[in-house]
Amino acid sequence: MTRLRPAAAAAPALGVALAFVPLVAPHNITVLNLGFFTFLYVAQGLAWNILGGFAGYVSFGYAAFFGLGAYTTALLWLHGWTPVLTFPLAGLCAAAFSLVVGVPTLRLIGPYFSIATIGVGEAMRILMLNLDNITGGASGLNLPTTVPSKGWFYIASLVLAAIAYATASWVRTSRLGLGLAALRMDLDAAETLGVRTALFKNVAHVISAFLVGVCGGLFAMYFQYLHPDNVFSFTESISLVLIALIGGLGTIWGPILGAAVFFAVQDYLQTSYPTFHLLVYGVLLIVILLFEPRGLAGLAARLAGRRRAPAPVALAPPAPGTVAPPSTPGGGS
Amino acid sequence: MTSSPLVLEHVTKRFGGLVAVENVNVEIEPGKITGLIGPNGAGKTTIFGVISGRFAPTAGRIVALGHDITGWSPHAICRLGLCVTHQIVRPFPDLTVLENVMVGAAFGGGARVAAHDARREAIAVLEFAGLAVRADQAASALTLAQRKRLEIARALATRPSVLLLDEVLAGLTPSEVVQAVTLVREICARGITIVMIEHVMHAVMNLSHRVLVLNYGRLIADGTPADVTGNREVIAAYLGTGPQEAHLWPAPQAQDAAGGPAQTGEETLHD
Amino acid sequence: MFTAQNLISICITSILTAGLYAIMSYGLAIIYGVMKVINLSNAGFLMLGAFMTQVYSQTWHLDPIAGAFLNMPLFFLAGWAVYVTLVRRVRQALPIASLLMLFGLWLVLQNVALTVWGSEDQSIITRYTYKALSFFDYRIAVTRLVVFVVALAVMAILHVVLNHTYVGKALRATVQDPQAALLAGIDTERISALAFGIGTAFAGFAGGLMTLLFSFTPDFGAPFQLKSFTIIVLGGLENLAGVTIGAAILAFAESFAVLFMRASLQNVVAYALLVIALIVMPGGVASLFGRRS
Q: Which residue of A has its CA nearest to C111?
C-alpha cells in the first residue's frame, strides 16, 4: 500500500487532459453535461469508498449527505451568499450529520450497519419532504438562475473529482488507511494492536461525508431546483454503492471506472423511464459478485497480468485459521 | 506502590451463570517469564481476555504499568504497553507480512508513529523474529508456524512492556517448538515481561521462572516449576480426579523439568 | 382524538395490521434464521407477488386470496432456484456479499417489473373491496379482516409444520445451531435451499394478500422491506415466534404515532425503531427482560 504504483501518474494525466475539453469544444453541451455528472459521481464514488471500501462499511444512506450539502448551499444562496463560498459549509453540514449518525451506527457490524443506513437515509428523505418551510416540501425549491457556463461547471466538477482522488489516495497510503484496512479485515485483532477502531471509522465517515456534501452543493448550483425526492433519494444512495462496487471496492481506480461506465450506460440507455440503467447495474452487480469481486478494476488488473491484485477487498472470505465474524449486530465492540 | 507491571486483584469473570474466572489475585514479576497452565476450560484465555480489555471483569481490578486498566478498551491497553496474542492466530489476510507488523508498529505504545517510521520499525522486528525474508508475502500464504511467529512479531512491534502469549506453541512440530522457545527467551532478554499460556509442558516448565496453575477459574498453585509439578492438587486437576482423591496417588518426587523435547501435546509432568 | 372509542378503534386496526406484518416478515425471518442471510430481494418478491396476483385476476378472474395461495408453490420454486444459483455461491464470503447480491436481485426484479408493467399505480378491485362489517360501534373493512384471518390461518399451519414435522424440526434445529444440526445428520444445504424457497413463497403470498389492502407499483416493496427487518430485529433476530411480537409492536407504534404526528411521517416510525433496535437491543425485546450471555 505504500508502494508507488506505476499507474499512479495516469489519473492526474487523465485529469489534465480532460481539462482541455471545454477549451476545445465550448459549445458541446452534451459532452460538458456528461462530463459534469461523471466527474461529480467519480468524486462521490471515491469519497464513499473511503468508508465503504477501505473500512468495509457499506452505507446505503449517503444521499443524506448529498442532500444536506445541496440544501445548505441552496438556502444560503437564497439568502444572498455566493454559491461557491457555501461549499465548505455544505461539506461541514454533511460532516456534522455524519457524526451524529455514525457514532451510534458504526458500532454495528457489516450487514446490520448497511440496513441501518437504509433506514436513516429514507427517514431523512421523508423528514425533509415534510419540513415544508425549509425545503419547500413537495413542491421543491427554486434557485436563482444566474450561474456560470456549462464549461465552468465541467471544470468545477473535475476539480472536485481531483480533490476526492487526492484525498482517497492520501488516506490509502497513510497511517489512517493502514488502520482502516486492519479494522476491516479483523476488528478485534486491530483493537488489540492499538488501533482506535471507533475513532478511525468515524474519521473515515466524516471525511467522505464532507466530500459528498460539497458535491451536493455543486449540484444544487448546477440544477437550480431542489426536491427531496431528487437529492435524498434511495437511487442517489445506491448509485454510489454501485459505482464503487462495480468499479472495484477499496481501489482508487474502481470508482473512476465505475462512474465512467455508470454514466456511459445511463446515457446510452435512454428509454422510457429514468432508472432502466439500474436494471443493467443490478445484473452487473450479481455478475461481479459471482465472478470478479474486485470489480472492473480487478478485471483490468487481471488482464494487465498483475500478479497481485490491486487492493484488499471487503468481500473476500476470511482466511482459514482466522475467526469468523460474530453473528450479532453489535459484534465484539 | 508495587513495581509489578501487572497486578490482578480479586478478578472474577462470569458469563451468565458460568463462572469462568474466580477471585484471582496475582502480581506478575517484571522482566520474567510467568507460565499460566491448567486443564482445558480452566479460564486461562478468559483471564487474558479480561487483562487485554476484550471484556470487563465482573468484579475485581487490574493494575498494569501504574494504571488501573479495569474496563479500558483494548486499544488503550495496547498503547499503554500491554499486548496480547491470540490462541487462534489472526493475521490480516490481505496484508503482507510486513504490513501486518506495520499495524503493530504504527499503533502501538509510546509516541505516535507515522507510516514510514512504522515501516522501518516493522522491518527491524521482522529481522529479529526471523521473518524478514517473507516480508512481502501475503500473510495468508504462511504456514502455521510462520503465522504464529508473525502473531508474536506483530505484538512485539507495539513496543510492549508486557506481552501475553496465548498458546504460541500449539500445533508446532518439535523443531518448531525449539525455535519458538528460543524466540520467547530472546524477547524476555530484551526486558519484556512475558506471561504465557501453554499446554506443551516441557517447554513452559523450561521457560518459566514462575508458574501459575488455574483450575475451574481459580488459582490453585503458584510457584516455581519444580514446586508446581510436585503439587498434588495440580496433578489431580490434570488427571481429572478431585483434590480429595489426590491421596490415592503416590507423592511424586520433585523433578527438574528441564528435560528434552517430548511429543507435542502430551502433557508430561514427569519425564 | 383521545376518546376511548378512537383508541379502541386504533387498537383494532393495529391488531389487523400486525397480522399482515407478521405474514410479510416470516419469509425474511426464516431465511435469516437458517442461514444468517439478509434477503433484500424479499421486497422484490413481495412486489412480484402482488403483480402476479393481478395477472391471475385479469386473466382468470381469480380472487386475490386464491391468487396469493397460487403464488406459494411458484415462488417456492423461484426461491429455491435463486438459492441454488446465486446465494449458495457467496455464502462462504463475508455476509455483506450475500446482502449485496440479493440487493442486486432486488434491483433487477424492480426494474423488470417497471419495464413490463410501467410505473403507474395498480390495484385490484373485488366484490368486497369497499365493504365493511359493523362490530358494535366499529366499522372494520372486510378486506382487512379477511387478510388477518388468512394470515392467522397460514401462521397456524406454519406453527404445526415447524413443530410437528421432520422438516420443520430440522429447520428449527438449523436456526438454533447450524453446526450441531450438521452433526445430527441434517442436510443443512438442502434445508437452506428449502428455507429460501419457503421465505420467497411467503413473500409472494404476502404480496398477493396485500393487493387487497393497497395499490401497488414496482417500487412499493421498499418500505415494507425495512418494516419487515424492523420486525424481525424487534422480535429477536433468531426467534421465529418473536416475529408476531415484533409485528405487533410495530403495528401499534405506527398506529398510535399518527395521533401525534403527520400521517406522511408514519414510515419514519419504522425506520427509527429499526435503528434504535439494532443499536440498543440486538437480541430483540425479549433480551431486555431476559439475561444476555
A: A279
